[in-house]
Amino acid sequence: MNTPDSQGTQQDVLIERSGPLGRITLNRPRALNSLTRAMLETVRTALDDWAGDDAVTAVLLTGAGGRGLCAGADIRAVHDDAKLGGAGTRAFFRVEYPLNELVSRYPKPYVALMDGITMGGGVGLSGHAGVRIVTERSAVAMPETRIGLVPDVGGSRLLARAPGELGTHVGLTAATMTAGDALHCGFADHYLPSAALPDLTARLTAGEDPAATVAALAAPAPAPASELAAQRGWIDHCYAADSVEEILERLRATGLPAAKDAAEQLLGKSPTMLKVTLAALRRARELPTLAATLDQEYRISCAALAHHDLVEGIRAQVVDKDRDPHWHPAALEQVTAADVARFFETPEGGDLGLGRAG
To answer: Is the pTM of this model over 0.90?
Structure first.
């Protein structure tokens, strides 16, 4: 049986030194570099080693295969493990979330190339980096509500801090952001054409300053406009509502095709996870640090592992691919405030405690 903690070898992550540059390459291209616990542990060991190595002046994170940085966790493994109680996935989270927090405070320039597909756990390894680069090929998303889960890996903090209600829209609908959207919503800092990435790597290998190098290469390449930014009017109005039910009512009332499509997207998602996601994003706005947000996400993720909709969502989207999930409860009005509150309780086995450590 494959679980998030049993799959993977060190070859699934390539750890290299190129001059003063520490290079991390996620190396499961046929699986879109989806993450296993062994991969995360390898990345953590490398980052811990390089943090105290004066010969390493910067770190570069990339994905092998040319299609993307990382599509997230190994969802099939999560599905199988959750059916057996979820112990392996909880152990995966206990490695992943502290690593996400380390990325956010890494003592050396940490450059993440969010080229191509960068979703879920891929955002966790890149979206908190010091230097976050997108290209014309970038497709950035927190797609968890598609599979009966809630945005995690610190994604709820990024979404909560996006302008207006854009993050609420992206988080609830699991919308995919373009490079322009990712920049506007605070998931990335710099835009480079993909053709410039080999030059960037070569310069970093030569020991050039990452910030200055990125600025120099980005100068002739204006960032694309954000499509989401152009829709802030109806998005801010609709998603400012206090409940998912009212959000749906406002979306339908606008008469706009884009808002109608958003409503249809929501209607296909788990009612429970929509309500938990909205509550998580609202709470994340008030949490002081990424560490505290990751603590909250750990509680939610552990609760989701024991909920019917996670296994069912992955079954429908990834395993059987019938795209016909049967959610329990099936309607928003059947999900009570008490049902939502249970996702924020301390899980069996204890909390993550990152916020306390910080």
So the answer is: yes
What are the φ and ψ backbone dihedral angles of 186, each rounded to 5 degrees? 85, 20
Structure confidence by residue, pLDDT tens digits, 31-49: 999 999 999 999 999 999 9
Residue 205 lies in a domain: yes
Domain that holds residue 79: 1-141+186-225
What's the length of the chain?
Answer: 358
| pLDDT > 50? residue 3 | no
Query: Residue 147: inside a domain, yes or no?
Result: no
List residues bridging with 190 in a β-sheet.
133
Whether 96 maps to a domain, the answer reads yes
Count the Cβ atoms, other than its own, within 10 Å of residue 349.
9
- The CATH number of the domain where 302 resides is what? 3.90.226.10
HSE (CB half, 13 Å, CA atoms) of 249? Answer: 8
Give residue-wise pLDDT tens across range 182-211: 999 999 999 999 999 999 999 999 999 999
Look at the block and give the residue holding tokens 């609709």. Answer: 238
Share of residues in the chain with pLDDT > 90 (%): 93
Among residues 201, 225, 249, the one where a domain terminates is: 225
Instruction: Work out how many domains the chain is built from and give that number.
Output: 2
How do residues 204-251 score in pLDDT, each as one tens digit?
A: 999 999 999 999 999 888 889 999 999 999 999 999 999 999 999 999
335 and 206 inside one domain: no
Distances (CA, A) of 99 to 4, 238, 258: 15, 35, 37
User: What is the rounded distance in angstroms from the CA atom of residue 358 to the CA atom of residue 142?
Assistant: 25
Same domain, 133 and 11: yes
